[in-house]
Specification:
- The chain is built from eleven helices and eight strands.
- By secondary structure, it is of the alpha/beta class.
- It has an eight-stranded mixed sheet with strand order 3-2-1-4-5-6-7-8, sandwiched between helices.
- The longest helix is centred in the middle third of the chain and has 29 residues.
- It is elongated.
Length: 268
């Protein structure tokens, strides 16, 4: 494989992507060149055999794929740095929240292929839900991007207008579900179990619940009905949670995150 992937801004998400792709065994360390401001934090990847660059321009020189994994507030600065150095035979994949394809093209030029992707940090263990979108001009590149991200989880192609919502549901959503698991483990700790036992039990139970939905292609309420009986302990617990706003709080959290995501990037 002659592919060279440049990760510009290899922070948590960028390095998680590299970990997942390496874990897939399809890619090897020599396929990657990574950059970030503090390159000392990339020492483990350097030891594995990944190339570490101090210059973004040097990093993209021989890359087939350029992945932008910087903060929305920093993306314009990076794009201006790369302007004129990215060729139309290179594919740019942007992981940057709130930044549209057209925003990027205004700086890099209209001939550079650009696709947006929104994975989450479970990409490191190849369990990401990655949402992918682009403009009409670059739909021919979607298959290539899907193929890349299918090595590290599930993918879905959506309209670009939905990408901000995807950020809230899938990227921020990792934190929301982790907080729910944390709450469940605290409940387990309060009723009978040591903290480490309760966390293991809560995490595996959450994994089982998600796996049921995926394996059976079922609706949550169908699976809930299977474990609730009249006057039983399950329905009593569910009703208590709902009385205290469990579902409405979760929904509100997602909608507020989506609103916040829209304001992360400011056009020049």
């Amino acid at each position: 494989m002659n592919t060279k992937i440049a990760i510009i801004g290899a922070g948590n998400l960028g390095t998680s992507l590299v970990k997942g792709l390496l874990e897939s065994k399809i890619y090897a360390p020599q396929h990657f060149v990574l950059t970030r401001r503090n390159i000392s934090k990339l020492s483990k990847f350097k030891e594995q055999g990944c190339e570490i660059a101090t210059s973004n321009i040097e990093a993209i020189a021989d890359a087939n794929v350029v992945i932008l994994a910087v903060l929305p507030q920093k993306v314009n600065e990076i794009l201006h740095e790369l302007k004129g150095n990215i060729q139309d035979n290179q594919l740019v994949i942007s992981l940057v929240s709130g930044v549209k394809v057209n925003n990027i093209q205004k700086i890099l030029g209209s001939n550079v292929p650009i696709v947006r992707a929104m994975p989450n940090t479970a990409i490191a263990i190849r369990e990401s839900m990655t949402c992918i979108a682009t403009t009409h001009n670059w739909k021919s590149k979607l298959e290539e991007v899907e193929k890349l991200f299918k090595h590290v989880g599930e993918t879905i192609v959506i309209n670009e207008e939905q990408m901000t919502s995807a950020t809230a549901l899938c990227a921020c959503g990792i934190a929301f579900f982790l907080r729910a698991i944390r709450a469940a483990s605290q409940g387990g700790n309060e009723i009978d179990f040591h903290a480490n036992e309760a966390l293991k039990m809560a995490a595996q139970t959450a994994k089982g619940a998600a796996s049921l939905l995926i394996a059976n292609n079922s609706h949550p309420e169908d699976e809930i009905d299977r474990v609730t009986s009249p006057k039983g302990c399950t329905i009593a617990g569910l009703n208590e949670m709902e009385h205290n706003g469990f579902s409405s709080s979760f929904i509100k959290g997602i909608t507020v995150s989506a609103k916040q995501a829209k304001g992360l990037y400011t056009e020049e």
